[in-house]
Design goal:
The complex is a heterodimer of chains A (487) and B (479). Chain A folds into three domains: 247 residues, Amidase signature (AS) enzymes (Alpha-Beta Complex); 127 residues, no CATH class; 65 residues, no CATH class. Chain A is built from 15 helices and 13 strands. Chain B folds into three domains: 291 residues, no CATH class; 113 residues, no CATH class; 59 residues, Arc Repressor Mutant, subunit A. The chains are: A alpha/beta (487), B alpha+beta (479). At the A-B interface, helix 9 and helix 10 of A face loops of B.
């Protein structure tokens, strides 16, 4: 591979070539930065590109790689969603209110990757505060889909998904509160996993819906996603909700063997109005699993219909408190005002976009005196029912297969005027967050417009190994040939 | 109708800092007096993305308090977010406990006032929460100091069992004594470590139904609590007596004008939108932890008070005075070995020791001699080696010099003369020198006896054993 093509490498390939010193981290990083400068003006996947710091980090990585025992992510160029606090590098959350905010600390996962010698190319675009399904809610313009520049990349982690699809980086980090990793992964034709809630530390990841938010990677292959997750996962003393379960070596789970695996297909997920190409692609993938020795089982998740309603009460309620700190007092955008009340009102009016304001108002309403029981409390009960649906389903099957989204990437602007239709983009992914389960998205076909289609593998808590094994087996079976976007 | 036809119905919500080294949800120091915004980090500054981690010591101290106040300790309690906007509240919400507090129920018994029956004030709950920062207003700007942001606070809520300002004061003093005994809080009012909200209503004596209450917010000393209650009870009675109606209001205490004034509804009409804090798992306090804390509990003020009355024969009042401050009670106990008369030791503590402590405004360890030395001094009095008068002089000297009792008594030459022949010689000399007075006395002027005792004592430099002077003079003058 020519030096100019190094950005196309998978992490698995790059790891071995870096260790054999066939390539250097500096060469690899330069190739990615060159690619970013060549294609990102068309995509707007990056909000910040850290050329200088990235090259410095690459030199340091090369020094470590010269000796034996460099950590797995050493020298691997990554892109980070601009919702992770990065010490000394602006963290905007796609919002005017944090346009100038430079955190004095690293998110735990950023610190872990930094300690391993990973390269941070820059910060990627997102829906403001991760609220959205298309990255059109970014205050800094939408990200375009590398497969079709007239279409959205999905959201909220659209920048991170597009950056991987366009080979601007080897892998990237996103966050997923209701589908914000899986939906853009599906729209952009890359792999992405939302791990079990508590598997990865949330410290330093700007909160949207705290009981739903989870950190995860985008990658070019399932194997790469497994490699990155291993470096992210684990207990963090700074996150009281993080699990102390040991982190398995996910890559070792990739045996290619799914013989006897029971694959559940929920009857509620083949919804009316779903594009036939999507249904066909997912049915095709199920056929491939059967051919590989898995067993297909029909299951039921009866409370699926209530998931979106419950989600938009719980997530917005939590968001209404989480976003209260952006008041113009200590950091971020500050409007001039004669007293502190006016300071809040003007700073927040000027700093937040329409969707963020809508969700803050929804959440504030749901928690208000007299409405709490009818809305927030009821939504929490629905959440319990949805969790039980999955518990029952996993008595019958090991993994559930669904489409990631009911459509492929839609046109920019197409759903912006209708928030409710936009919310339906997450209909297959939201339940997974409510139940705290892991969900892996990976490409399984294309529609007639050459747009990627993704399937979702859902497992019980802490079953990431099974999901990776199944996804990797499917990928390796050659059922589906990924297409590089023409840029 | 007279004022005393009414009674107050009063409940207190006490907020007090816990004695932890670090804050409730981060590792920053809780030390008071640092330069502004020195003891801060991303967590207590409410930076984006930060998460709280609960301080174990704060939980232990709250459990200690719960046990001392006879509360039920919840095996599982929940933290909630209480939302409101204020510049000193960095996250826009305070992490507190709402529906499921750490401690439920319980009571505080106030010292008996001589009738043997303690007055019991029941508690509703005790919970943990974080403090806010502090706004500092200047001519053209307001500044915020976040050093206090995240300092652990305990909120202790009483039932409306208190009937008067005086009783509120007694409750607060007892609560403070408990908190200091168990080393949960040092109740430092001057450092903003104590704040109290007061709910006050009045009703006709004997009535069951509660009146319309008003809440007085943010009182930061015991004295203000008592004054505000007095003022508010009187105000409410006046309104009712003049045929007026009371509104449920929130008031602020104006310490300068010594009156309460209603807050504008905008200032307190908050809907706090409580909901469970998703960043903290439920707080689980295992029974084994509660047992371990129970075993580590010191003697509580009420128990010590009872012990002093029962075992030492102190009066209720004296016992209450001595136990009120933990250090004083500890001092008293440390003085006692070797002493026979505990009552006179108690008197000594209440007069001599408390005086030097109050006058010097220093902790007892700096203001007074070591308790064993004070005990040794009192033992010399008991053994009639020195007079009480001499002991006072020696004590004053010991406070200044820091020297021991023996050395001080020797240095000042205060040892009492109990040598019978020396005293007899002094008596003989006086009788020889004052024949006229002796004749008067023998003629029936008994009152002159004091004159002779004084003269003998003077002639011996004040060090003679007074009982022996009495005895010897009686014998000689009678003959």
């Amino acid at each position: 591979m020519a030096a100019a093509e190094l950005h196309r490498l998978t992490i698995a390939d790059a790891q071995s070539r870096l260790r054999k010193r066939e390539i250097s981290a500096v060469e690899l990083t330069r190739a990615c930065l060159d690619r970013i400068h060549a294609v990102d003006p068309k995509l707007n996947a990056f909000l910040t590109v850290s050329d200088k710091e990235a090259i410095e980090q690459a030199h340091a990585a090369d020094r470590r790689l010269a000796a034996a025992g460099a950590p797995p992510m050493c020298g691997i160029p990554l892109a980070i969603k601009d919702i992770y606090c990065t010490r000394g590098v602006r963290t905007s959350c796609g919002s005017r209110i944090l346009e100038t905010f430079v955190p004095p600390f690293d998110a735990t996962v950023v610190a872990k990757l930094r300690a391993e010698g990973a390269i941070f190319l820059g910060k990627t675009n997102l829906d403001e505060f991760a609220m959205g399904s298309s990255t059109e809610n970014s205050a800094f313009g939408p990200t375009r889909n590398p497969h079709d520049l007239t279409r959205v990349a999905g959201g909220s982690s659209g920048g991170s998904a597009a950056a991987v699809a366009a080979d601007e980086c080897l892998a990237s980090l996103g966050t997923d509160t209701g589908g914000s990793i899986r939906e853009p992964a599906s729209f952009c034709g890359v792999a992405g996993i939302k791990p079990t809630y508590s598997r990865v530390s949330r410290y330093g990841v700007v909160a949207y819906g705290s009981s739903l938010d989870q950190v995860g990677p985008f990658a070019k292959t399932v194997r790469d996603a497994a490699i990155v997750l291993r470096s992210l996962a684990g207990h963090d003393p700074r996150d009281s909700t993080s699990s102390s379960r040991p982190v398995p070596d996910y890559e070792r789970a990739l045996t290619g063997d799914v013989t006897g695996m029971r694959v559940g297909v929920p009857r509620e997920y083949l919804v009316e109005g779903m594009e036939p190409a999507i249904e066909n692609a997912v049915r095709g993938a199920l056929g491939r699993f059967e051919a590989l020795g898995a067993k297909k089982i029909e299951i039921s998740l009866p409370h699926t219909d209530y998931a979106i309603g419950a989600y938009y009460l719980i997530a917005t309620a939590e968001a209404s408190a989480n976003l209260a700190r952006y008041d113009g007092v200590r950091y971020g955008l500050r409007a001039s005002a004669e007293d502190h009340i006016a300071l809040y009102e003007r700073s927040r009016a000027a700093g937040f976009g329409a969707e963020v304001k809508r969700r803050i108002m929804l959440g504030t309403f749901a928690l208000s005196a007299g409405y709490y029981d009818a809305y927030y409390l009821k939504a929490m009960k629905v959440r319990t029912l949805i969790r039980r649906d999955f518990e029952r389903a996993f008595e019958q099957c090991d993994v559930i297969v669904t489409p990631v989204a009911p459509t492929t990437a839609f046109r920019l602007g197409e759903k912006m005027s209708d928030p409710l239709t936009m919310y339906l983009s997450d209909i297959f992914t939201i339940s997974v967050n409510l139940a705290g389960l892991p969900g892996l998205a990976l490409p399984c076909g294309y529609d007639d417009k050459n747009l990627p289609i993704g399937m979702q593998l859902i497992g019980p808590p802490f079953s990431e190994e099974s999901l990776f094994r199944a996804g990797d087996a499917y990928e390796r079976s050659g059922a589906f040939k990924p297409r590089r976007p023409a840029l | 109708m007279a004022t005393d036809a009414y009674e107050g119905v009063i409940g207190l919500e006490v907020h007090t800092h816990l004695m932890t080294k670090s804050k409730l949800f981060c590792g920053c120091s809780t030390a008071f007096g640092a330069p502004p915004n020195e003891n801060v980090c991303p967590v207590c500054m409410g930076m984006p993305g930060v998460l709280p981690v609960l301080n174990r010591r704060a939980v232990e101290l709250a459990v200690r308090t719960g046990l001392a106040a006879h509360c039920e300790i919840a095996a599982r309690s929940i933290f909630d977010r209480k939302s409101y906007f204020y510049p000193d509240l960095p996250k826009g919400y305070q992490i507190s406990q709402y529906e499921t507090p750490l401690c439920k129920g319980g009571y505080v018994d106030l010292p008996s006032r001589g009738n043997g029956e303690p007055r019991r004030i029941r508690l509703v709950r005790i919970h943990l929460e974080e403090d806010a920062g502090k706004n500092i207003h200047e001519a053209n700007a307001s500044l915020v100091d976040f050093n206090r942001s995240g300092v652990p606070l305990m909120e202790i809520v009483s039932e409306p069992d208190i009937r008067s300002a005086e009783e509120a004061g007694a409750y607060l003093r007892e609560l403070r004594a408990i908190l200091k005994y168990i080393e949960a809080s040092d109740v430092r009012m001057e450092e903003g470590g104590f704040r109290c909200d007061v709910n006050v209503s009045v009703r006709k004596r004997g009535a069951e139904k509660l009146g319309v209450k008003s809440e007085i917010k943010n009182l930061n000393s015991f004295r203000f609590v008592e004054k505000a209650i007095d003022y508010e009870v009187k105000r409410q009675i006046e309104v009712l007596e003049s045929g007026g109606k009371l509104a449920q209001e929130t008031h602020l205490w104006d310490p300068v004008r010594e009156e309460t004034r209603p807050m504008r509804s905008k200032e307190f009409a908050n809907d706090y939108r409580y909901f469970p804090e998703p960043d903290l798992p439920p707080l689980v306090v295992p029974a084994a932890m509660v047992d371990a804390i129970r075993r580590s509990m010191p003697e509580l003020p009420a128990d010590r008070r009872a012990r002093y009355v029962r075992d030492y024969g102190l009066s209720d009042y004296d016992a209450a005075v001595i136990i009120a401050e933990h250090e004083i009670a500890e001092y008293f106990d440390a003085m006692l070995p070797g002493l026979k008369n505990r009552k006179s030791a108690a008197n000594w503590v209440m007069t001599e020791v408390l005086r030097v402590v109050n006058e010097s405004a220093k902790p007892i360890a700096e203001a007074a001699p070591k308790p064993a030395e004070t005990g040794a001094l009192l033992r010399m009095v008991e053994e009639q080696k020195i007079s009480l008068h001499a002991a006072k002089a020696a004590f004053a000297a010991m406070c200044k010099s820091g020297k021991g009792a023996d050395a001080t008594v020797a240095e000042l030459g205060l040892a009492q003369v109990s040598d019978e022949s020396a005293i007899a010689a002094a008596c003989d000399a006086l009788i020889a020198a004052e024949p006229a007075k002796v004749a008067e006395y023998r003629g029936g002027r008994d009152k002159l006896f004091g004159f002779f005792v004084g003269r003998v004592m003077n002639s011996m430099g004040g060090k003679a054993n007074p009982a022996m002077i009495n005895q010897i003079l009686k014998r000689k003058l009678g003959g």
